[in-house]
Specification:
Layout lengths: L2 E2 L1 H8 L3 H9 L6 E2 L5 E4 H7 L22 H22 L2
Length: 95
Amino acid sequence: MKIDRPHELTSFTGKSVQTQQRADREKILKAYRLKTANGYYTHEQHLEYVGQKATANKKGLVYFRVSSSGQKGDLIHQESTLSVLMCQRIEKHSP
């Protein structure tokens, strides 16, 4: 499962960020929210939004990094947050 930011949807669909926000308010294209209130979309949502169908049973990949060794605490936080998020997504989409 690929997770995309709103600007990536803009380049994928040709729709502006404001159009995405309106679609989110009207519950046409609902953004997932993190605890930080940042929104994100899945690639499957993008495909559905433009009328294409996503292929099933793809593997997910989570990538996280920090700039220096002094930020190892941030790296651990990123890992735990993304692990929880991916586990929730897998449980939600399991048959």
